[in-house]
Amino acid sequence: MFNYYKEKKTGIITLLIIYLSTLVPVGFVNFPYIDDNLRRANGIPNFGAHYSRWVSEIASWVVQGSRRVTDLGLTTFILSAFILTVTSVLFVYVLVGKKATILSFILSSIIGLNPWFLNAVAFRFDTPYISLSLLFSVLPFLWWKKEKRNFVIFSTIGLFCMYNTYQASSGIYLVLALLMLLTDFLNGKEVKNVVLLGLYSLLSFFLGTVLYMGQLQILPATANETSQIMKDDYFSKIVTNLHTYFSTIYHHSARIWIFMSVVSILCFAFSMLYQVKIAKKLAFGYLSIYFILSAIASFGIYIFLENPIAPDAPRYNYGFAVWLISMFILASTQIRLKPINILKNVVFGLFSYYLISFVFVFSSMLHIQKDIFEHQSIMLAQELTQIYEPGDQVFIQGFLRDSEVFKSTTRNYPILSQIVPSNIHSTYFNQLWFSQATGMPQMNATPVGFDAQSYFKGHETRQSNFRFDIYKIEQTIYVITK
Hints:
Elements: H1 2-7, H2 9-28, H3 36-42, H4 47-51, H5 54-64, H6 75-95, H7 102-108, H8 110-113, H9 115-121, H10 127-138, H11 148-163, H12 170-186, H13 191-218, H14 234-252, H15 255-275, H16 280-297, H17 318-331, H18 338-384, E1 393-397, H19 404-409, H20 416-419, H21 428-438, E2 444-445, H22 452-455, E3 463-464, E4 468-473, E5 476-481
Parallel strand pairs: 1-2, 1-5
Antiparallel strand pairs: 3-4, 4-5
C-alpha cells in the first residue's frame, strides 16, 4: 500500500483536500445536529447501550480520553476526513488498482460526501465512528485475491465491526462483492471459481450478521433498528421495504442528480461491455443480473426489517449512493476509444461537481437555520421573561420559523428538508436547544387537536408581535406561533 501511495500521491492528496475542505465547514457551523444537543448536555455517548454500537462506544472513549464525551469542535470532522480518505483510497485500490486516474479519486470522495451520508456525517459526536463503518466494509477486500480462508475470517470480523459502528453500511460489502464478481465474470475467469468466491462472500456476510444478532441477544439495545427483523409475510414485506427505499431516494433527489446518474450508468455499461473478454450477449446478461442484485443488496440488512425504514431518515439509504459510485470508479479507467474517454470524463466530472458542491449548500443551510433559530429563540425569551414566574408551565403551538432562503433552496434540493432540521416542529431536540440558547426551562408542545381560537376566547394576549401571540391563564403560558 505504501508503494501505491507513492505512485498515486497526487490523487490521494487531492482526495484528502476535498474531504477536509468540505467537512471542516460543516463543523465550523457548530450546528447542534439532532441528538448532539443531548450529548452536549449530559456527556453520555450511549452508542453501546442505546444502539448496540460497541465499537463506536469504545472508540469514543479513546478519542475523548474519557468515558464522558464533550464537544471536540473540529477534531471529529478532521478525523472523519482522514478515515474517509483511507476508505476511498481502498475503494479505488480494490476496484481499479494501478489503473486509477485523478478522476477515480475525485469520484471516490462522493462515498463519504453523498447527500444521504451527510445526514450521518453531520453528527458532531458520531461522525468518525459512522465513517469507520464504511472502512470496515471495504477492508476485507484486501484479501479478495488471497487465501480464501483469510478472506472469510477478515470479512466476518470486518462485518461484525461494521454492525458495531453503523448498521446502515451493511449493504456496502455486498455491493462491492457483487461488483468484483461481475468483473471476474466479464474477464472470462472460470465460472466455477467465481461462483465459489461469491459463496464465500455470502458465507462471510451470514457469519458477521449472525455474530451481531448474537450480540443483540446478550447485550440488547434500547433503540436498534436491526433487531426488528420481520417474522412473517416475508415476500410482501421485502417488496414494500424495497419499494419505499427506491421511491424515497428518487423523491429526495435533485433532478440533475437523477439525470447525471442515468447518463453515468450508461457510460459504465458501455465501458464494461466494450472491454469484455467473453461473448457480448453473455456479458449483457451478467450485467443485467448484476444491476438487479446489487441495487437490491445496497439496502443491506434493512431489506428484512418488519417495517420500512427508508423514509425515516436519508442516512439509512446511503448504500445506494455507494452502489453508484463503486460502478463509476470502476468505469473511470481509460479505454482505447478516445471519444468515449472524453465523454466519460465530462460526465463523471460533472456528476462529481454536482454532488461535491452540494456539501457547501448543506453547510450553508445549516448556518442559516441555526442563525434564525437562535435569533427567534432570544426574541421569544425576551417576551416570555416579562410574564414568566417560577413554577409556570409553558406550552407552544408550532415552534419557530424556517428561513425563507432554506425553503427556497429545498425546491432545488428536496433532500435538504430531510437532512437540515426544521425549526417549525416542537421536537424534544428543538425544545432542548431553545432552553440551552436562552437559559429558560424547556417548553412543551400543545396537545394534539388543541384549538387556540376557541380555548382563548374571552382572554386577551399578554404579549404579541408579528411572530407570536402569548397568553397566560393562571400558571400556564401558551405561545401561539403565527
